[in-house]
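Translate sequence into structure tokens.
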Amino acid sequence: MSDTSAEIRGDHPGLAAADLERLLTDNGVTVTGDLVIDLISGGRSNLTFDVRDDEHHWVVRRPPMAGLTPSAHDMGREWAVTSALVPTAVPVAPPVAIDRTGEVIGAPCTVVGYVDGDVVRSVADMDAWTDEQVTADFDALVRTLADLHAVDYRAVGLDDFGKPEGFAARQVKLWTRQWGLVKTRDLPDVEKLAGLLSERVPTEAASTIVHGDYRVDNTILAPGDPATVAAVVDWEMAALGDPLTDVALMCVYRAPVFSRVLGFDAAWTSDRYPDADTMAQRYAEVSGRDLSDWPFYLGLANLKLGVIAEGITHRALQGGSSGADGAERAAEATATFIADGLKAING
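Result follows.
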């Protein structure tokens, strides 16, 4: 993983070294020497920490300090899906320990093994790539998503991970409800888009494991090799559901306005990557899936991102930002996403 640690070292208000050592030892992990904790920058959601002792290297994730909303920041969800995916073709960080209730750490958290590689967040991170490497990276990301959707969730023990039937309809209700919890102003087009989506939910859909937040900066690429995905990370929104919700979200993340949500020029918005339509078509070719009802899925993805953008500002105003710059302005992107969603669903 590339070095993105913030200036905060040692104990952090969200993670005390003594508590973490207890969690590790309770899970049979021998801690050698003092724990060194760095807060990793760049997150808009769960707090992520780089942790080392004299011999080991881990990554710890926990929910934000304030402004939590129901269903997001689910550490148990991350743990269950990554543990199940270890023997599959989908690369994940090896699970180490979990505090499900927060009894030890003070909040639910997970500990996974550190995966060496490159985390590509900004457009500048791609400067050294050739055009051929950009294309190879795009293809690797699409293939990895198709591999995820090809996993038999029953065979890997995720039968009880959720109810895939009716997933898209529940997503419309979920993000409409989330809007009511995080909105910082009235925006009638949100309800308009949600209403149209609820009327046009596809009657048939496949059921797979879905990541729920898939793009390049939620992966770790092999060191110096953009064509190889070393690990897919950030599984807090994973579920059993409709794989086309993942594909549409991956495509909508390509919108330039997404950089405003993250607070910097996001790599995934770079015009060096293929456009959203090309990405969707490539996924269809690799996976063999038909992109039926595509306007609905694009509308739903835009609703989700609009609400997420609003939620980032909501948490920042409550003092729950994870330290990234510009969180108070993320909601400026909401209206654009909602307008794009209405445009998509209206054809």
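Note: Confidence is low (pLDDT under 50) at residues 1-7, 67-72.
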